[in-house]
């Protein structure tokens, strides 16, 4: 019997290619501070996202007349899998 455990990974794994990735392989879409240009990621709830940076990187989806911005490239496909669920996170 082994006690091997699988490491869990978030959708924001550095293994996901992303044109907006910072030099350390992680996205920096949080911007300089909270303002009207900020929102939160509907997939990684509570993660701040700079709307302009996310838009420039293509990290957004439109759903039922609303635009949702993501903190990383992994969140878009997760959102696509169940947009109603993730849109509800923003309500």
From TrEMBL:
<dbReference type="InterPro" id="IPR012348">
    <property type="entry name" value="RNR-like"/>
</dbReference>
<dbReference type="GO" id="GO:0016491">
    <property type="term" value="F:oxidoreductase activity"/>
</dbReference>
<dbReference type="InterPro" id="IPR007029">
    <property type="entry name" value="YHS_dom"/>
</dbReference>
<protein>
    <submittedName>
        <fullName>Cu+-exporting ATPase</fullName>
    </submittedName>
</protein>
<dbReference type="InterPro" id="IPR009078">
    <property type="entry name" value="Ferritin-like_SF"/>
</dbReference>
<feature type="region of interest" description="Disordered">
    <location>
        <begin position="1"/>
        <end position="29"/>
    </location>
</feature>
<feature type="domain" description="YHS">
    <location>
        <begin position="57"/>
        <end position="88"/>
    </location>
</feature>
<feature type="compositionally biased region" description="Polar residues">
    <location>
        <begin position="1"/>
        <end position="18"/>
    </location>
</feature>
<dbReference type="Pfam" id="PF04945">
    <property type="entry name" value="YHS"/>
</dbReference>
